[in-house]
Design the sequence.
């Protein structure tokens, strides 16, 4: 029996190792390409051992100004996540703890706004931002990102708040706490796994978003996804610089996910009430 269990465990680990190799190989190749010269990048057979260079990073971020695009993307992402969570958490809590007869209608409306293709709203949104003077501003693109991320936050967090036993709230009310205190000091800390997971998804959605950024941003607020196609020149595709930009694009989201990963565990409130 023990031998059979050991074989099964070894097979599971072997499968996980193979899966990780398959998943991480493209990313590893991207990172390697970012340090290659143009000759090494196109060499056949591919070179795994080569003399690295930082020219791709210098040319892309210093000479072509993508450092500014990186700053723009970071500002927009952080603002989008902060505002979406600040507005979405109380809304989700209200849906969870104070049901009304209009809950289903409102929930379906939120879901509909989340799944509406942006291309349908592109022209009205552009005209509205133009009338308000918000084109080529951080405010315009942040408002657009928040509008599309907010329904997602409400839907996600409502499920996490629903998982928290209401008996906890009732006990807190008996002790004299207000609903705002219960939301802020009890239920939200208990749902920190959901807060972390939702914030990561919001960050990824904002960081990778292309179409809204393409329409609403300009020279001073262009984000990384919009700036990358500029590396496709009539003289050819600059793969080394594209790889350098692609490597840097992944780093902020990875750092953000690593910082909150210990909280990204659903169901941590199970067993809180016996």
Sequence:
């Amino acid at each position: 029996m023990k031998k059979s269990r050991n074989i099964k465990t070894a097979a599971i680990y072997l499968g996980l190792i193979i899966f990780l190799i398959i998943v991480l190989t493209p990313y590893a190749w991207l990172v390697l390409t970012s340090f290659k010269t143009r000759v090494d990048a196109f060499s056949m057979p591919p070179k795994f051992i080569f003399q690295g260079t930082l020219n791709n990073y210098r040319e892309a971020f210093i000479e072509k100004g993508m450092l500014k695009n990186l700053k723009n993307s970071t500002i927009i992402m952080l603002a989008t996540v902060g505002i979406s969570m600040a507005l979405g958490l109380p809304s989700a809590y209200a849906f969870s703890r104070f049901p009304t007869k209009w809950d289903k209608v409102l929930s379906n409306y939120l879901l509909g706004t989340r799944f509406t293709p942006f291309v349908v709203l592109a022209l009205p949104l552009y005209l509205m931002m133009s009338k308000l003077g918000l084109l080529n501003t951080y405010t315009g693109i942040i408002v657009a990102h928040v509008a599309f991320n907010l329904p997602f936050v409400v839907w996600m967090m409502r499920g996490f708040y629903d998982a928290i036993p209401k008996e906890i709230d009732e006990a807190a009310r008996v002790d004299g706490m207000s609903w705002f205190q219960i939301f802020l000091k009890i239920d939200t800390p208990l749902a920190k796994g959901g807060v972390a997971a939702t914030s990561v998804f919001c960050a990824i959605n904002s960081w990778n978003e292309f179409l809204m950024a393409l329409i609403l941003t300009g020279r001073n607020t262009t984000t990384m996804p919009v700036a990358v196609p500029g590396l496709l020149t009539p003289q050819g595709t600059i793969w080394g610089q594209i790889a350098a930009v692609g490597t840097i694009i992944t780093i902020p989201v990875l750092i953000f996910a690593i910082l909150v990963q210990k909280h990204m565990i659903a169901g941590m409130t199970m067993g809180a009430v016996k």
